[in-house]
Design a protein that fits this description.
By secondary structure, this protein is mainly β. 45% of the residues are buried.
Length: 640
């Protein structure tokens, strides 16, 4: 999915760009492994069976923990080279670890045919990879299991290049990852060059495809990082008229300075139909080799009445003088994230992807995310549930308890605006030296709940959970309100007995705005700190919302709102006629108050709102029109 989306976005961006002349590279050798290993030879070093094999479908082998893993997303598709550490260790049976044909840790290599680079001063090796890592050995969890070695004397001596040093235990690259190495110092002007890929480690796999050797790196602009929408899931009413700062960080990885114009582009598209919602561009003239630039687009995205659907936020960098696709790493000048506009939920991270977690070495910790509700919402909502993803630690989940909390911040609290990729972001209005216990004493904690893990619940692969029962600190009310214009921290306490658990994260989802703040009272450092590794370590914590009481304490005049028909089988229509322009919000919820749809209306005087009830089962539903002057609520019976 990621690869096909990149290709589609590349096409969309390409047709929007004016180009002039070409700066291409020449492929000297290409190996696509479509039908076989194409002359590459494999040798098992730790065991005669610890060998690389040809994977005809490009998938990750037969291991118990990777069987059916997504194939490598290379341009050529088809076959690939595979070292299947997982399958070699357990033979596909999770109860047989160490009993497979070549127990881990293993070491095996696959070596190219002889390559002649006579007359080539520069040689660039590029390849697609899909790599998942656990450890180098039982006592080394930092050194990669993957390396590339190059020889210019027929294999007598080798020069080694470590790759994937940024991949931590239980992490993986994206399936379409591309690595480019300058091997000119060893291979340039040499007539008998060998290249080999070496696996030396303990789980999981390494797939290699589309190995190419070029005469130069050519134009290679990289989208290194970018700002994203604050949350993966945001209610439509919370996004309405909000302002999103769009920035991108670009590096010139070319082997030359680029003197001509460089274009920066951002697009927001609907995911299903690719309809263009927003776009902006920017330019700089010239970028030297190795330099990095941050572009802050002139226009912020300010959504108005966004539809409840999935969107793509994409960034692209293009060199004005480059008419040919970048050959060495063609996909890294486009990057994107998806986000959802929902009806009643905030969620920081997507539920799928390369999930893992972080904790603080067994010390108790608190972690929280910042959420806010626009002033345009006409009445309070209720925090119904705290949602989160957690991963098991040293021991099973059963019997452990996590505390959920909601902090109401002062009205002055805000996320600072600026060049976010320069680190100009903070949460003002919160005293960073104030611990969660201090916030409880100061009565800023307005909601609390807990999750006791019971028999049968497990999270060895990281799982979603909820805290369903929230109340105020006195336990007197289960109506914990999210006020219009309010700013909140929603978080979890991993106390003694649960501090080995990991709060879930997602490696594939970049969150550069204020993401998560953490407090580790167990190590003597009171107060909060911002998680700085935003790309990987934003905490997967969110909320689900419901309506307040379905009783009109201050009813609107009878002739201002009509909700009909009742009963109905297809649509509920809401006719509004106010005397003056009014801020209003129209809610539709189930009989328990769980919000199913919400429509914010700005300065409305005469309007009709329709709810398609064909999407919902028969039953009783609550429809409410809320303004600052009062409310109108009606229970509608739906029959199909």
């Amino acid at each position: 999915m990621y690869q096909s989306t990149i290709q589609t976005l590349t096409t969309i961006f390409t047709v929007m760009v004016l180009t002039i002349t070409a700066y291409g590279q020449t492929e000297i050798y290409t190996f696509t492994f479509d039908n076989d290993m194409e002359g590459w030879t494999s040798t098992g070093l730790s065991d005669t069976d610890a060998v690389w094999v040809w994977a005809p479908n490009g998938d990750a082998g037969t291991g118990a923990f990777n069987n059916g893993q997504t194939p490598i997303a290379s341009e050529s598709g088809g076959g690939a080279l595979l070292f299947d550490s997982d399958g070699l260790d357990n033979g596909g049976d999770d109860a047989n670890q160490g009993g497979g044909p070549a127990p881990s840790p293993q070491m095996g290599e696959v070596v190219s045919p002889s390559l002649d680079f006579t007359g080539q001063d520069q040689v660039i090796l590029a390849f697609n990879q899909y790599y998942r890592y656990f450890a180098k050995s039982a006592d080394d969890f930092t050194t990669p299991a993957s390396s590339v070695e190059v020889s210019n004397d027929g294999g007598t001596t080798w020069t080694s290049y470590l790759v994937n040093e940024d991949i931590s235990p239980n992490q993986a690259t994206r399936p379409n990852d591309i690595v480019a190495l300058d091997i000119s110092e060893v291979a340039g002007n040499q007539a008998d060059v060998l290249v080999k890929f070496v696996w030396d480690g303990d789980y999981y796999f390494w797939l290699i495809d589309d190995v190419k050797l070029f005469d130069s790196r050519g134009v290679d602009l990289v989208v290194l990082d970018f700002t994203n929408i604050d949350n993966f899931e945001t209610p439509d009413f919370a996004m309405n008229t909000d302002s999103f700062d769009l920035e991108m960080m670009v590096t010139n990885n070319s082997d030359m300075d680029l003197p001509d114009s460089i274009m920066f582009l951002t697009r927001i598209l609907t995911d299903e139909t690719r309809d263009l919602i927003f776009s902006d561009t920017g330019w700089v003239v010239g970028l030297n080799a190795g330099d990095t630039v941050i572009w802050d687009f002139d226009r912020n995205w300010v959504p108005t009445t966004p539809n409840q659907e999935r969107y793509i936020l994409a960034y692209n960098v293009r060199y004005r003088g480059d008419t040919m696709p970048e050959a060495v790493a063609p996909d890294d000048n486009v990057d994107f994230n998806r986000f959802d506009v929902r009806d009643f939920s905030f969620r920081k991270l997507p539920p799928t992807g390369r999930t893992q977690g972080f904790n603080f070495g067994g010390n108790p910790y608190d972690v929280a995310n910042f959420l806010s509700l626009p002033e345009t919402v006409a009445e309070p909502l209720i925090f119904d549930k705290i949602t989160f993803k957690v991963c098991e630690g040293d021991d099973p989940l059963v019997g452990k308890t996590i505390i959920g909390f909601i902090v109401q911040l002062p009205d002055t609290a805000a996320v600072l605006k600026g060049v976010l990729l320069n680190g100009e972001t903070d949460l003002i209005g919160l005293n960073a030296g104030t611990s969660l216990d201090d916030l409880i004493r100061d009565q800023q904690v307005i909601g609390i709940g807990s999750k006791l893990f019971t028999q049968g619940e497990e999270a060895s692969q990281c799982e979603d959970f909820t805290i369903d029962m929230l109340s105020d600190l006195d336990g007197e009310s289960d109506q914990v309100e999210m006020m219009p214009g309010g700013k909140y921290l929603v978080g979890l306490r991993f106390g003694t007995g649960a501090s080995d658990l990991f709060i879930g994260t997602n490696e594939d989802y970049k969150v550069w705005q204020l993401s998560s703040i953490v407090s580790t009272p167990g190590d003597g450092s009171d107060g909060w700190g911002i998680v700085t590794d935003y790309q990987e370590n934003a905490a997967d914590i969110g909320v689900e919302l419901t309506m307040t009481t379905a009783v009109d304490d201050n009813p609107l005049p009878e002739n201002t709102v009509a909700i009909f028909p009742n009963p109905t089988s297809d649509y509920i229509r809401v006719n509004i006629e106010f005397e003056t322009p009014t801020e209003a919000t129209v809610f539709m919820a189930d009989a328990n108050g769980k919000i199913l749809n919400i429509k914010p209306l700005k300065n409305v005087q005469r309007e009709q709102v329709n709810f398609d009830m064909g999407r919902y089962p028969s039953g009783t539903y609550i429809v409410r029109v809320a303004t600052r002057e009062g409310t109108k609520t009606e229970h509608v019976i739906v029959t199909h």
